[in-house]
Design goal:
Blueprint lengths: L2 E6 L4 H16 L7 E7 L5 H16 L5 H8 L2 E5 L5 H15 L6 E6 L6 H10 L10 E5 L7 H14 L5 E3 L7 H11 L13 E9 L8 H26 L8 H14 L7 H5 E6 L17 E7 L9 E7 L6 E8 L19 E7 L3 E9 L7 E9 H4 L8 H10 L9 H19 L6 E4 L7 H9 L9
Parallel strand pairs: 1-2, 1-4, 2-3, 4-5, 5-6, 7-10, 8-15
Antiparallel strand pairs: 7-11, 8-9, 9-10, 11-12, 12-13, 13-14
Length: 482
């Protein structure tokens, strides 16, 4: 059956920077289902050709060396534009008739709606799709991708789920988190569940703690207006970082199928011990980089956190007493996303000179980006130096192993999965609500008089100094490697 992808918010940045380049590259690789058409919808008036011309320029820019003029021409002939306003019911009637008559020519077709508008329009768009009869499936499946953020707290996420379920059943809904589309995040599932050597030691008996770091070198730039309402907890923790935590901590699903995977992920969120009372001071750190308050659209007295570190416990058999340290920030030393599995020290230390610290125990470092790979750190004997030991590593790197093969952008995989009806790498309604249930109390505590102080840090370091001191007090230290 032919497919129609309908992008709401077609004149926005996400469409030109991510969605169209991803669809174009899928087309170029011959991966898009046969007869896939793309229809952009936004308020700006465009002719089909004017929109195509704009997208050609942006796609060239964002796909770089991969751009091929001939492949673009064939792809461009499958993209169309329809002016429309989310608040206007007549726009949806017109869109429906344009899709049925001009695009699908009266024949059945699968449809994938993509909400890439401002999140404040999600509910209205869903309601209009319902009112126009565009969610019902007599002429082919109807799926909808909803971009992040899915709500701004638990109450709004619940309201959005309710509004969505009035029109679409859960199996039609694809809540996107682009971290799940990253090759290295999927490879974490492969590392854990396609190998036998890691699983026996992937638990409280061998692991001291887990660190998940998502550090960004960039500052907020022109996104101050959005960021100041969001802050790092909403922007990075509720979604991307908790996704990484779930995949690191989950049990093996019975099969690689959407609901089996999501069932296991949800169990992890349920097992996370809610923070309360003194935990907010003891287990959370909030920071802001110096200069944030001068950014465009940021109030000069903003107390929004651009950095956070959290210590969470997953109360289940596998992870009892194994803390998960999570941290993320803007304006940090470098861009890196990594998961560090810090193993315990051996029970008795026979070799080496002087006292050892936890730093010397084995580590498994999963580099999600940008130097995608996996390293195992272990002690070896320095030759001809008595029994002196040194930490060395086994180092797997995607770029060395798969020479000349660049890692595709996350949106390619996710768009293709949604077109094919595979929701394995999308968040389910209970998952987003549970995630907000973890973040909301921290946000509330940070607004209260008992909030831990906002720590300032100069751009270009690993967050506030307190973050390092806090780890040292717990006889641990962050793995700060770019
Ligand atoms: C987005 C956040 O979801 O993820 C941004 O809104 C952040 O603030 C981005 O920069 C990070 O994504 P990536 O793929 O560059 O790590």
């Amino acid at each position: 059956m032919p497919h129609t992808v309908v992008i709401f918010g077609a004149s926005g940045d996400l469409t030109s920077r991510k969605l169209i380049p991803a669809l174009y590259l899928l087309h170029q690789k011959g991966r898009l289902p046969k007869e896939t058409r793309v229809v952009g919808v936004a308020r700006t008036p465009f002719s089909h050709d004017a929109w195509r011309a704009e997208l050609e320029t942006s796609t060239k820019k964002f796909t770089g060396k991969e751009f091929d003029a001939t492949a673009w021409q064939t792809f461009a002939s499958t993209i169309f534009y329809q002016r429309g306003d989310i608040d206007d019911a007549a726009s949806f009637t017109a869109l429906k008739s344009f899709l049925e008559t001009d695009i699908e020519k009266g024949a059945p077709a699968s449809r994938l709606y993509y909400l890439s508008t401002s999140p404040t329009l999600y509910e209205a768009a869903i309601e209009q799709l319902g009112a126009a009869g565009m969610a019902e499936e007599s002429q082919g499946v109807r799926r909808i991708i909803i971009e992040k953020p899915f709500g701004t707290n638990l109450a709004s996420a619940k309201a959005l789920n309710i509004a969505t379920h009035k029109v679409f059943s859960e199996k039609q809904v694809y809540r996107i988190d682009h971290y799940l589309g990253k090759e290295t995040v999927q490879n974490l599932l492969v590392l854990r569940f396609a190998n036998t050597i890691f699983e026996p030691i992937w638990n409280r008996n061998y692991i001291d703690h887990v660190q998940i770091t998502v550090a960004e070198e960039v500052e907020v730039g022109s996104r101050g207006g959005y960021y100041d309402k969001s802050g790092v907890l909403r922007d990075m923790f509720q979604n991307h970082i908790l996704q990484l935590l779930m995949i690191t901590a989950m049990e093996a699903p019975v099969r690689y199928q959407a609901d089996f995977i999501r069932d296991e992920k949800v169990k992890v969120l349920r097992a996370i011990r809610p923070l309360s009372g003194a935990d907010f001071a003891n287990c959370t750190i909030r920071g802001q980089y110096a200069g944030y308050r001068e950014a465009k659209d940021v109030p000069p007295d903003s107390n929004v956190a651009t950095f956070a570190a959290l210590k969470l416990q997953v109360d289940n058999w596998r992870w009892n007493r194994v803390p998960f340290y999570l941290r993320s920030g803007k304006a940090m030393s470098c861009r890196t996303t990594q998961i560090v599995i810090q193993f315990k020290e051996p029970p008795q230390l026979l070799f080496g000179d002087g006292p050892r610290s936890n730093l010397d125990a084995n580590k498994l470092v999963i580099q999600i980006q940008p130097a995608e790979g996996i390293q195992i750190h272990f002690l070896t004997k320095v030759p001809d130096a008595g029994m002196k030991l040194r930490m060395t590593d086994l180092n797997f790197s995607f770029s060395r192993e798969y020479v000349g093969k660049s890692l595709p952008d996350a949106y390619q995989r996710l768009l293709l999965d949604a077109l094919n009806g595979d929701a394995s790498l999308f968040a389910r309604s209970d998952e987003v609500e549970l995630a907000w249930g973890i973040i909301d109390p921290i946000l509330a505590a940070w607004q209260s008089p008992a909030a831990p102080p906002l720590e300032f840090y100069p751009p270009g370091q690993w967050g506030p100094d307190l973050s390092d001191q806090w780890m040292h007090e717990q006889k641990r230290s962050w793995f700060d490697v770019c």
